[in-house]
Amino acid sequence: MAILLYNIKELFGIHPANEILRGSALANLPSIKNAYVIVEGEQIAAFGRMDELKHKPNDFNESLDATGRLMLPSWCDSHTHLVFAGSREGEFVDKIKGLSYADIAAKGGGILASAKKLAEASEDDLFVQSYKRLQEIISLGTGAVEIKSGYGLSVESELKMLRVIKRLKGAAKIPIKSTFLGAHAFPTEYKEAKEDYIKLIIEKMLPQIAAEGLADYVDAFCEEGFFTTEQTERICLAGKAYGLKPKLHVNQLNSIGGIQTGVKVDAVSLDHLETMTDDDIEILSKAKNTVGTLLPSAAFFLRMNYQPARKMIDAGCAVALASDFNPGSSPSGNMNFVVALSCIQLRMLPEEAVNAATLNGAAAMELQHEAGSIATAKKANLLLTKPVPGLAYLPYSFGNNLLERIMLCGDWK
Ligand SMILES: N=CN[C@@H](CCC(=O)O)C(=O)O
Ligand SMILES: [Zn+2]
User: Fold this and answer.
1) Pocket of ligand 1 contains residue 179 by CB under 6 Å
2) 76-363: what CATH class?
3) Which of 17, 70, 219, 388 is deepest in the core (most CB within 10 A)?
4) Predicted model pTM
């Protein structure tokens, strides 16, 4: 079954290699004007300039005239918490009224509120809720995603979350990576016995997760009032002993050494990064294997300062963009909005933003060999826009749905 997509106004993301893009390389989004793509089975079989196309549309089982439309690789969302139970819009209204994080926590809100709801939900119910969210982000153009646990915070509930992620992997067409985030918050009963919770993570949760093959990565919320750098490091090393590489929450609210710790444990990615010192940026810029993942919709939703994307790119960091889809700080998994926000508020160029949300997003979940760019033998996960003047129109015209069709593994969605 071969499909020809022809007369594409401009085809973006034709990276010759699958290298992580850092610094000035992020501004280079290679493209072909007046292009074609041939899809065979689940993969991109060929692409090039229309004047080089040797076949006619009728030679194919299916063909589509994409005159006036752009084509891009699907979004690669490398940081989400989309498995959760219920929602927290009550907190959202409390915040509008002026309540602080501490006030909300005192009222039983925050991560622990989601943990309570999750403990009460059955695995099947959690799967149904999460599957809907997954379908929603796929319809918005996401073609690869990472999903974390972290609203379980007990052996039973963390396993429940991870089993749901495993079921999502089986049910969805897109590649999914799974991250164990037992170290998201200390459960109330461990508030005065934090070391016991770390022990529970290392001695009970990790061995079971590894035995069932439930996670690809290990994560911790390295932050004041949450997990210290020392605890984060121990959890990462314990995870690594089971083959789980670290992907960490660092520098969201404070710079407490999360970047240094993350680089030390050779994290695949260090995520959030709202609060970065010049030292943090320099250390991250020198880390060859670590992607800095910016989550601008969390900064937007929490009314925080945005991530210093310009400084980071100018310093030579490898930068990715992700949605942080979660019920507390980013109840949206819309990567089109994330890309627009990164241009509007973080001053990323449209080319930088698209690279950060595709190839570097793929690299932040080690999927750069199958997703994130237009290349032969990669998955045919493609976005076809409506007729638009050019790439910059996408973030400029933020909030409007500019995607006309979405292809996943060679099938139209
Ligand atoms: N910062 C830590 N965790 C989530 C938010 C968790 C929540 O409020 O539910 C995040 O990435 O933003
Ligand atoms: Zn997060």
Assistant:
1) no
2) alpha beta
3) 219
4) 0.98
